[in-house]
Structures are given as structure tokens and as C-alpha cells.
Amino acid sequence: MAGSVELDVLIPRLGQKRPVFHSEADFQHALAWEAHQIDPELQIRLETHPEPNVRLDLLLTHPDLRAYTVVEPKYLTALVRPRQW
What we know:
By secondary structure, the protein is an alpha+beta fold. It contains 2 helices and 3 strands; from the N terminus they run H-H-E-E-E.
């Protein structure tokens, strides 16, 4: 993410520390903090509005690498079952 943190490293690390989250905001914050722990140079913004009519859940930027990543995390809060017709 943002050129310095690999998602396939970040998610398992986070899952070991926090297998359950109580809200989307809780997940966003934990994800951002874990990314920061891996690379403290990351600049992280939660729930930002970079321009009118644009809302970003999580923006990670790395100024040295001139890279950024936008994340819109989602998670299921209950088992979704197909509708029976």
C-alpha cells in the first residue's frame, strides 16, 4: 500500500492481533495503525474529503515514493444466505 506496505503482509498481521472488529470505523483505524507500524513514514488520513463530492475512507500516502493508495474497507457483519425462490 502506498508503495511500501504489502497487503498480503498487512492483513495477516492484523488478523493475528485483531480477528474481530466491532465496526467499520474500528477496522479502518486498526488497518491504518497496522500499516503505520510497518512503515512509520506513511501518511494516513481517515474519512477524508480531498475535493468536493469525494469521500475516502482511508488514504495512505508515501511522500518519498510519490505513491498513494485509497482503501474502502468492507466487512460482513452477518452470514448472507441466498434467497430461496
